[in-house]
Specification:
Thiol Ester Dehydrase, Chain A
Length: 127
């Protein structure tokens, strides 16, 4: 099985309904809206953990596209800039540094209106 199959076959990725693409070194992860991901039914916005997961998955996918394998996350910083409503989201990540022990990615999540929802810097172990 290739690393790409591993991303597509992950039960968590399937649950989220993720679609993956690589464009000019940028990993893109699309997620449709799912009612199960709403944080509070009275205030219809997605849980921040799901947005963080999108950043992390996109970063991992970007690194894996260069290394040929997935890598574990060792640190992640997320800045939430806007709530995500009942709409699909797209995360994009690019590798900033690919070293022998650490890879660094910058990632962002945008909504359907192309508004920035969150940004993140994720560090992965490449050992």
């Amino acid at each position: 099985m290739s690393w790409e199959d591993g991303f597509r076959d992950s039960p968590y990725h399937r649950f989220l309904g993720l679609e993956f693409a690589l464009n000019d070194g940028v990993a893109e992860v699309r997620m449709p809206f799912r009612e199960e991901l709403v944080s509070d039914p009275d205030v219809p916005y997605l849980h921040g953990g799901v947005i963080g997961a999108l950043l992390d998955i996109a970063g991992d996918y970007a690194v894996a596209s260069q290394l040929g394998r997935g890598v574990p996350t060792i640190d992640m910083r997320v800045d939430f800039l806007k709530t995500a409503g009942r709409e699909p989201l797209v995360a994009r990540a690019r590798v900033v540094k690919l070293g022998r022990s650490i890879a660094i990615t910058d990632a962002e999540v945008r909504n359907e209106q192309d508004e920035l929802v969150a940004i993140g810097r994720i560090l992965f172990s490449t050992r």
